[in-house]
Amino acid sequence: MTSPSNQPQYQVxxxxxxxxxxxxxxxxxxxxxxxxxxxxxLDPLAVDTAVAVITGSVGSRHAVAHWVxxxxxxxxxxxxxxxxxxxxxxxxxxxxxxxxxxxxxxxLAEVGIDYASPEAAAAVAAFTGLRNAVGHVxxxxxxxxxxxxxxxxxxxxxxxxxxxSADFQILREFVSRA
Length: 178
Prior knowledge:
Blueprint: E1 12-16, H1 17-24, E2 30-34, E3 52-56, H2 61-75, E4 81-85, H3 95-110, H4 118-130, H5 134-140, H6 142-151, H7 154-164, E5 170-172
Parallel strand pairs: 1-4, 2-3, 2-4
Antiparallel strand pairs: 3-5
């Protein structure tokens, strides 16, 4: 089903939370789930579609972009990518997820996957404007401060290490529809 919230005319789409994943996944080949301070409040696999689901972060942005580019070559056509920022509890805005999603979208553009929706372009602009503060934002943001108050610094430090890592997870395998 196509609707404006699906951003159907764009190769790279962007939205927030599970609702945003459900809105942008139809017609996409790949969904990149970005959760800079993961707390398990949302499950991207709850998206009811055949789309591949992978995780993304600032550190893994280049590896993710090259993985997506390889899937595009398998398709023999443009791969459509929905990048989704997990957001905070209840779908609340989470600046750290916005910046990490922008980093992934920026890396996609670097490999030529760059026909981005205005929403995706805005996420990239946020990342490029604050790229030197991304690590600091993890602990300085509302979500980071709440996590520190609740569980101490260790979870934020672990998230910082995970966000710096080039590793990403494939949560649901890619299936070529070609």
